[in-house]
Design brief:
295 residues, alpha/beta, globular, binds 1,3-dihydroxyacetonephosphate, binds iron/sulfur cluster
Amino acid sequence: MGQSIDRGDALVLAHYYVPDAVQAAADFVGDSFALAQRALASDKPVIIFCGVSFMGESAKILCPQKRVYLPVPDAHCPMADMASEEEILHMRAAVDDLAVVVYVNSSARVKALADVVVTSANAVRVVSRLPQKNIYFIPDKNLGAHVAAQLPEKRFYFGSGCCPIHGVTSVREVRAALAYHPGALLLSHAECPEEVRAMSAFVGSTAGMIGYAQQSDAQEFLIATETGTLCELSRRCPGKKFYPTRTDFICADMKKVTLPALERVFAGGGTLVEVEEHIAAKARRALQRMLELAQ
Ligand code: 13P
Ligand code: SF4
């Protein structure tokens, strides 16, 4: 066991996809962009990141002086392994006037080779502000295509990765859910496939979906993202009804981050996130550029 942690010394951050009990125990719940901003703004010496490993890694890169803990080190986003350093080097050699845009769901090594990192909440804005004409967007081909559709002045090259949970959302599944809830508005995460995004009233990040539902006059919504998001949707929109497009729209890795796992961190059983400084320094530049361009 490592050293125990005083509750007052720690900022507990949780993503919308972790179990409801963990969201309730956190100081702040958000999407990956808001969580990175909160980590950076905190004056606490410790961050406990209830999410998948790339999120804790990004917090550590942005806040190298803090101790960042993951309750479950093997809670890992499979998409984070779907972009390679070799592909980036190949594209840099092959295409002039190229910006390498790396989705935050990626390894620190890949971020270190990026011109800029993006999240689903800021990708369109950040890419629109890049001076380069050519954009290599990795790893998520679905988010990449969503961004490209809004920026016709740029030329895009895509990676081949996608989320194994959002990426399999089908028109058939959405139509079946709409048959049960014919009046519901479809809100989709940008990691969903093109044909599902095309049917949606809103496409964006988890926080964007929640914001849309809050300001909308509609009373019923079909939600194409991880079911953990329903907790915050119901909390922020009392009286409105939310239905998942499928009941097993679940990220198994996010669900590994249980309340007992969080409690073990306070008792000294967490995993300290470490990123080698020669990689962290380069990845930090790409993350900080995102924060600047997203403003
Ligand atoms: P957000 O950026 O919306 O938090 O999404 C992260 C993610 O992993 C979606 O699958
Ligand atoms: Fe990764 Fe998909 Fe899980 Fe998000 S929902 S953390 S992209 S596997």
